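WARN no homologs supplied; continuing
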Amino acid sequence: MPGLKTNEVPGTRAVLRHYRMSAYKARQVLDLIRGRDADRAEEILNATPREAARVVGKVLASAVANARNNDQLDPDELYVSACYADEGTTLKRWRPRARGRATRIRKRTCHITVIVSRLPDDRLERRRARQATETSGLRSRRVAASRRGGGDTVGTETPSSQRDAADAEVEDLDATSTDVVEVEGEDVDDEGSAVDAEAAFDVSDAAATDFKEPEWLNDELEGPAAETETEAEAEEQAPPAKPRRARARKSTTKAAAAADEGDAGGSGEEEKG
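OK structure emitted
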């Protein structure tokens, strides 16, 4: 005895007839959502870059709406139990070709059917158990995060930033201040000891007069000037360079004179002969 046919699957269906698309193109998209949950099938169709995905998505939404309104089913418990595309009417057109011939153009159509049904009980139980574990795990992670953050006291700053601010305050208190304050003509530092301004000025002047520049600094400053002087002296002592063009002209004039003498000697021998 043959099994259950595809078009005889129980459930709520939606049908789109005579859509101007070949059944081959529609079947490629229907294969992606067959057996999937309704919400998961909708996500797949939204992420599929095909024209058939947009059309099949509308048919799926119509099937879910029929199940909710006509059969009073929960949309979250539905899945795509069957989906298929049948060939519809083919429109014939003709295109002229060479030598008075014509070629047939076939404009295909298809009928798209989507059937949604309620999930089986065992599958629903597994799905609810998975959702419960995910919810409990999320709740435990949230509680752990709140405990690490300081319990009931919740602030805008993180604990690490609060510790950094406290360390900075301690460093500011430990640091010794060297600022000088003037009190009745005398300079007094933070520790309370008076400082004589004239004595400090004399010490600074003495240090400035006793300062001497290091020898290596003088050598570096005198180095480039000495080098320039030696280069200038070498240029003055060097003999002037002879121009190359004059020598080339002399050689050419000597060669021309030799050639003229040879021509004159050859002509005289010919006359003697």
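The radius of gyration is 52 Å.
OK
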